[in-house]
Amino acid sequence: MKNVVITGSSRGLGLCMAKEFLKAGCQVTVSGRSEKSLEKAKKELAEYKERVFFMPCNVRNIEEIEQLWQESVKRWGHIDHWINNAGQNTPHVYIYETGKEYVDAVIDTNIKGIIFGCQVAAKNMLAQGGGQIWNMEGLGSDDMIQPKTILYGTSKRALTYFTRALAKELEGTPVLAGRLSPGMMLTDFITLTPEGESSPVLEDPHFQKIFNILGDKPEDVAAFLVPRILANTKQDAKIAWLTPTKVMLRFATSPFKKRKLI
Fold first, then answer.
1. Catalytic site residue 152?
2. Residue of 94, 96, 152, 161 with catalytic role
3. What are the structural domains of the chain?
4. Cα dist from 35 to 39, 45, 55, 76, whole Å
5. pTM passes above 0.85
6. Deepest of 38, 43, 180, 230, by most Cβ within 10 A of its Cβ?
7. Cβ–Cβ under 8 Å, residues 79 and 5
8. Does the pLDDT of residue 196 top 80, yes or no?
9. How far, in Å, are 56, 125, 127, 179, 242 from residue 138 at the CA level?
10. Is the per-residue pLDDT at 64 higher than 90?
């Protein structure tokens, strides 16, 4: 039985992945920024109450991440997979219109939070004799530039470099580091602004067209990622849902196969 910790798993892809790990017989720590953020997850995962542990953790604080590790170990004995999934988006505006509070939030969550998570997981996994660390890629990881999302894209590009470099540092050890590439998903990360309001990007006809071709539901992506995570034995692995081949196929078939997500 594998033991899994997922940051930012109170909703969206993180919550869907937690469900898939539980279906696969794993024990899972589900984490969100606050106790309140975990209420929905507790209801949705009630049937797995013996194999799921809920704990708030703000990944901007390394002390809280360390506590997340320690409390999870107390509950499960050891950690096999640590998934840095927590992320922060920004308003859909140009970078010169983006307030300092959003710059700080993205850097502190998407970059520093990932680094903190990897530091805590790598140190403790080396001490326990093994484990796997996974970081979540996103728009920008492949150098794609999308106006009005460049702060988020910059953070994800940095994450890709950092994860590959971490894997290099961990070569020859029993600890593996890899990346998860989920593609475009219909979650509130897309549909809502950081303030919880309907995102203006949903009114953009070009975005709607592209998203309906390339977008997916998080539960479908989670069902693809989780078994491959559990089967992985490679250092610097990348598990990608929306591959270049799949992108080309979807564009080629889009005139005949209509998809409507938004």
1. yes
2. 152
3. 3-189+217-243 (3.40.50.720)
4. 7, 15, 7, 20
5. yes
6. 180
7. yes
8. no
9. 24, 25, 30, 10, 11
10. yes
